[in-house]
Design brief:
258 residues
């Protein structure tokens, strides 16, 4: 039992269950002689990042060529829905992650490109700032994790997981309230001190989830999980990175709008 991760793609038994079948030939990407490695996961994470950038570039260019958000919103909404579907399939059918993880990355890229374009038109330069902060946070947390400065202890896992679940529930309640025309939970979107403080807290929790992702992936490779779990590990990192990037955009937008 590895503990818990706030990332919904990674549960306490994610790798332990799959490690038991590492000697079997189940799964699209697995063979009986191959096991998961850190380097393989890093390579596949790079592939998924490239796919996100590729599809995001298309909706980004489409938005600025048309100058109209309505031109890209169907693609953005469709990408978000398909990304959610592929994420669920990947979580419940990890053996398919070699196919579903790239499809998830392409779908999310459509959504991110459109959303990023809308933010960029309102606040020029905000996207490069959000990308830089996201990648900088990834590099910093990886360094802190590898040097042992930040250790994913059981209490650390419980704190991050509880906070992540709380944030998820708060967003869900706000979304349901918006559907019924009540305006949602105001401070989530506010550019006041409380709203900015909330965004800072969410960014911090999203960043700390990266540490749990690193730990789960490292332990999975040490246990000899099947080769296809490299794709699943890369997918789990992408889930956290996309969340972190979106929260960076929200935080910067609040700061720029004051």
């Amino acid at each position: 039992m590895f503990g818990r991760s706030g990332n919904p793609a990674l549960r306490a038994d994610t790798f332990s269950k799959n490690a038991q079948s590492s000697s079997q030939t189940g799964g699209i990407q697995s063979t009986s002689s191959q096991t998961m490695t850190l380097q393989g996961t890093v390579n596949k994470t790079g592939i998924l990042l490239a796919l996100v950038v590729l599809s995001a570039s298309w909706t980004w260019n489409l938005f600025f060529e048309s100058g109209n958000a309505a031109a890209v919103m169907p693609l953005a909404i469709g990408g978000a829905i398909m990304g959610f579907v592929f994420a669920l399939v990947t979580i419940f059918k990890k053996q398919w992650s070699g196919i579903t993880a790239p499809l998830y990355a392409l779908s999310q890229g459509l959504f991110l490109g459109a959303i990023s374009g809308i933010f960029e038109m309102q606040y020029p330069g905000i996207v490069i700032q959000a990308v830089g902060l996201t990648l900088g946070t990834l590099a910093s947390l990886l360094f802190l994790y590898k040097t042992g400065i930040v250790k994913p202890t059981e209490n650390f896992r419980l704190m991050v997981t509880s906070a992540t679940m709380g944030i998820g529930m708060l967003y869900l309640v706000s979304m349901v309230m918006n559907m019924f025309g009540s305006g949602g939970i105001g401070f989530i979107h506010s550019n006041g001190l409380f709203g900015i403080g909330f965004s800072l807290f969410v960014v911090a929790i999203a960043a700390l989830n990266l540490v749990l992702d690193f730990d789960f992936i490292e332990q999975g490779s040490e246990m000899g999980a099947p080769k296809y779990m490299e794709w699943f590990g890369a997918f789990s990192l992408m889930v956290t990175l996309i969340w972190l990037y979106l929260e960076m955009l929200r935080l910067l937008a609040k700061l720029r709008s004051r």
